[in-house]
Structures are given as C-alpha cells and as structure tokens.
Amino acid sequence: MTQIVGIVQVKGGVGRSTIATNLAAIFSVKKPTALIDCDLPQGTSASWFAVRKLEQRSAANLTLATARDYRELVVRARELAPRHSYLIIDAPPRIAEMTRAIVIMSTLSLVPLGASAAEIWSTADLLTTIAAARQYRPDIDARIVWNRFRGYTREALEISDAARRELGLGELMTRLGYRVAYSEALARGLSADEWQDRTAHGEILALATEVMGILKEKRK
Amino acid sequence: MTRTKTKPPMRKPLFDEDEVISFAAMGEARTEDAGHVFGADTEATGRKRKSEKKADADRSGLSLRLSPEVVARLRAEAERKGKTIDQVVEKLVHKHLGKH
After folding, report:
1. Cβ–Cβ under 8 Å, residues A88 and A24
2. Domain boundary assignment for chain A
3. What single string gives the DSSP state of each residue in B62-100?
4. B12: chain A residues, CB-CB within 8 Å
C-alpha cells in the first residue's frame, strides 16, 4: 500500500525541501519512492533532483513529479501510487487549497519547525487546518520535526517546551541540528547521508528510520 | 432495481479523492471570500472564473455538519446517480419540503 508523507509548514525557509529531499533519497534506497514538488515556481526539490541526475547519483528508484494546484496533485498521486511505495510531498509555504489537500491526503504530515517564536506563531494557521481536516479524517497524524535545533541553548529548550504545550502536536524524537551540511548536500543533489558531515549523516538516518517506523505501524 | 455486479478493487484506495477536493476547495472558497490573491490569473482562467461566477450568481453556499453516516449515504447516492451532492440535496429538499 502506498503511503504519503506531506512536509507542510506555513512559513518559508523552515527546511521543508531539506526534509523532503532527504527522506525521498533515503526511502528510495529501500522502496520505489516519488517526490512531488508542490512549491512552484521555487521548485527547490525539483532542482535538487535535476542536480542529482546531473551528478549521476542513483535515482533508479526515485521519481520526481510536480503539481501546480491541488487538482493536479490529486491526479499525480493517483498516477504514481500504483508504482511507488512512498509519495513524499513538498508543500508550498502558505495556507491555501494545496496545503489543505496535502494535510488531508497524507498518511503522516511532518511540520518542520525551528525553535523561534516567529516560527511557532506562524504555525497557528496550520493548526486550524489540521483541526478542520480531523473533522473529515479523525486519524490525521501531524507531527513537528524540530529543525535547525540548537539543543545547547536555553532558549531553544524553553521554546520547544512551550511549543509542546501550546501547539498540541506530537513531535518526532529526532531533531535536526543547525548544520551547513544540509544546505551543502542539497545544493549538490545529495542527501545528508551521502555528504561528509557524520553528525548530519546520523541525524538524517535517524529521522528516516523514525518516520519509516511510524509508517510501518500504520500499515498494521 | 438490482445493481450490476462489479469486481471490487484489489488495491486499497490511496485516499478519498472527493474528500481531498472538497476539503481543499473549502480553503479556495475562503480565500476568494477574503479577497486575497495568491497568484495572478491568466486571461483564460480569469474568463472561466467570471463565467463560473455568473452561473453561480443565483446560488448560495451553506456549510452543514452531518454525521459521517449521512455524508457517506449522500456521497453514495450522488455517485450512483452521477450527480453532485449539491444536486442530490436540492432534489431531496424539493421532494420533501417543496409541498409545504
């Protein structure tokens, strides 16, 4: 059964494409995976895929698709599902019909969040959408992924504690740190586990393993 | 009338397409109501929207909170008759409330 992972967040620059491209690359090592870039015309995930092919990195099990609106997304997902185990959707940075569609069609929605007040404020609108989607589908599962997390600072720890109380969303145990390795790898069409930073390598594999574990539980 | 037998799908549906479109479109309606413009319309889509708006001018929207069972029955009936849920609801209202 195909499972859909939506990477959604209202605010721009929070790491949606970083997480989407890394999960797509790592998942595709195990099973056929499609990466659907809905953040057009920016198209970071689509550009990453193009560079990856130029660099002749393995993309045998990885398909790229793009969708400009939610109706096109539904069509793409329908076409890709029979041939892929996972669809990873990189959402646009705004609450519009596309984000609503991604939230309701995803097996698991990941919400990248940095430990800053501005990013937490901007998540409020997304919470409304998630709550509305649960009226349709009570099993909607949306979880925070802490990104660019500086766990050694008191502010990051305080803000993440406050977010846990205020936002009422579950969160992944894996936190991605503030590392240039993620942007360096993305610019070269690589996933962080193909790059030379061992810490980023470990973090991203832990994230992929955790997400795969959640999806495996949902298949039961 | 007995319905013709069809083979059940072997693959579990990925998601309910009607549900996705309907939920996403609620956001679209809200966006238009609020007067926000997220992207410039092309001339063609602009004309299409104008004609859709003209056709919808004598219609108005209503949000209902119904039990999942009723929603499922409405969907099934609409699908069986090849109509939209709006048309099914309108027909039911005409049939049952029209005489009062």
Report:
1. yes
2. 3-219
3. ------HHHHHHHHHHHHHHT--HHHHHHHHHHHHHTT-
4. 1
Structure tokens at A157: 């720890």
Nearest to A101 among B11, B12, B24 (CB): B24
pTM confidence score: 0.73
Contacts for A44 with CB less than 8 Å, ≥ 6 apart: A17, A21, A37, A90, A186
> A3-219 sits in which CATH class?
alpha beta
Hey, how many other C-beta atoms are within 10 angstroms of the C-beta on B81? 11
User: Using a CB-CB distance cutoff of 8 angstroms, which residues of chain B are in contact with residue A101?
Assistant: 20-21, 23-24
Cα–Cα distance for residue pair A108/A163, rounded to 1 Å = 20
| Residue numbers in B near A78 (CB within 8 A) | 14, 17
Chain B residues whose beta carbon lies within 8 Å of the beta carbon of residue A136: 19, 23
**Does A4 contact B15 at a Cβ distance shorter than 8 Å?**
yes
Minimal-distance CA residue of chain B relative to A1: B12
CA dist A215 and A5 (Å) reads 9
Which residue in B23, B38, B65 is closest to A104 by CB distance?
A: B23
A5–chain B nearest CA distance, Å: 12
Per-residue pLDDT tens, chain A, 220 aa: give them. Answer: 899 999 999 888 899 999 999 999 999 999 999 999 999 888 999 999 999 988 777 678 999 999 999 999 999 999 999 999 999 999 999 768 999 999 999 999 999 998 888 888 888 889 999 999 999 899 999 999 999 988 788 888 888 888 888 888 899 999 999 999 999 999 999 999 998 899 999 999 999 999 999 999 998 8
